[in-house]
Amino acid sequence: MTELKEFLPFLIPLVVVQLALLGYTLHHILTHDHYKRGSRVLWLAVTIIMCNFVGPILYLILGREDA
Length: 67
What we know:
Blueprint: H1 2-31, H2 40-49, H3 54-63
């Protein structure tokens, strides 16, 4: 248990950033109709299944269409 307490100052900001990135990505997917590649369902699945930074980053790089 003491080992976890040592890592909390590092883990808490990571969790906050991860949740903020996931929230922004989900908001963007749900409010936009056009994507570079794939569809809304595909990007929702990728983002939710790979919610540990990977899914949102993949969407922002590969799926987000600049409007």
